[in-house]
Design brief:
alpha+beta, 2 domains, 7 helices, single chain, binds zinc ion, globular
């Protein structure tokens, strides 16, 4: 991918950050920081600094999700070429595909499982009363982000993790890896077209509100 900067290694895996990451980090910092400033006016200028911390922890959550996939792959003897963070997402690039449907299933599901575990831990921390003020707000926000990372990625269409889970299940049932890929790709295309159709429908359904803006 163009615009990737290598920033070191994690557990021996080359770690890259795409330039788009910095743009999103700036937007997220302003957005989170603005939200914290509105909720806690006494924070003053440090609200933006806390927004930056929240943004970095959000990307930390994406990174842990990718490390989940990576460790599951390494456990099965599959090398990880790189981990790259870009926009709101990440990508763990694997050396090879899993040899068995079980291996493919666990590599695909490991990332969402990490996100789900982080959601549960952060929710307990946020609800426990251990944290107060902005720290509690940030913990609640990160819990929500990790829930989104777990659920959105489990939508069962390729190239999402859920698509790889579906692929592994069809592969297991039929004994044919390519049938799994075809099914998961078709569902992915269907979900993609449905999303485009619903956006188009919404834009058709709202000309009045656009016109009333004048
Ligand atoms: Zn994933």
């Amino acid at each position: 991918m163009n615009g990737n900067f290598r920033v070191g290694s994690l557990f021996g895996i080359p770690f890259f950050i795409n330039i788009s990451w910095f743009i999103v980090l700036a937007l997220v910092t302003l957005n989170f920081g603005g939200g914290l400033a509105a909720q806690f006016p006494w924070l003053g200028g440090s609200a933006i600094a806390l927004g930056l911390v929240a943004g970095l922890l959000m990307f930390g959550s994406v990174l842990l999700h990718e490390l989940g996939h990576s460790f599951a792959a390494i456990q099965r003897g599959i090398g990880v070429n790189s981990i790259t963070l870009f926009l709101f997402g990440g990508l763990a690039s694997l050396d090879d595909e899993a040899k068995t449907p079980g291996g493919a299933f666990w590599i695909a599901v490991a990332g969402p499982l990490v996100s789900l575990a982080l959601f549960l831990i952060l929710s307990i921390v946020a609800a426990s009363g251990l944290l107060t003020g902005p720290a509690a707000t940030i913990a609640g926000l990160l819990a929500y982000i990790n829930l989104i990372l777990a659920t959105f990625n489990m939508i069962p269409g390729l190239p999402l993790d859920g698509g790889n889970v579906l692929k592994s299940i069809v592969w297991k049932i039929t004994g044919n890896q390519y049938k799994g890929i075809i099914w998961a790709s078709r569902v992915g295309q269907f979900i993609g077209w449905s999303a485009i159709a619903s956006v188009h429908y919404q834009s058709l359904a709202s000309p009045i509100s656009e016109a009333s803006g004048h």
